[in-house]
Specification:
Distance between the termini: 44 Å
Low-confidence stretches: none
Structural class: mainly alpha
Mean pLDDT: 85
Shape: elongated
Strand content: under 5%
Number of helices: 3
Order of helices and strands: HHH
Helix content: 55-70%
Radius of gyration: 18 Å
Largest sheet: none
Number of strands: 0
């Protein structure tokens, strides 16, 4: 019985560690997307690595990390569309 509990705790800890690691990686990607890499490009999409449209950045007060197409695709995935 004790072995089962210990195994469950180890699995739970591993899952928490993985979730934290993924969250930190995602935050780093988002932060990096706003760092200028190419002259004249203000921000880069975290999904496709293309420049985010300047009009989109302006309209959203630079509070986006996806280009318009990737944002649409992301919304569709969240809603369960393909």
């Amino acid at each position: 019985m004790t072995d089962d509990i210990e195994r469950a705790q180890e699995i739970e800890q591993r899952d928490r560690d993985n979730a934290l690691r993924l969250q930190l990686e995602r935050q780093a990607r988002i932060k990096a997307s706003f760092a200028p890499r190419v002259e004249g490009v203000e921000a880069t999409c975290i999904d496709c690595d293309e420049a985010i449209e300047p009009e989109r950045l302006k309209a959203l007060s630079h509070k986006t990390s996806r280009c318009a197409q990737c944002a649409r695709d992301h919304e569709h995935r969240l809603r369960g569309f393909r």
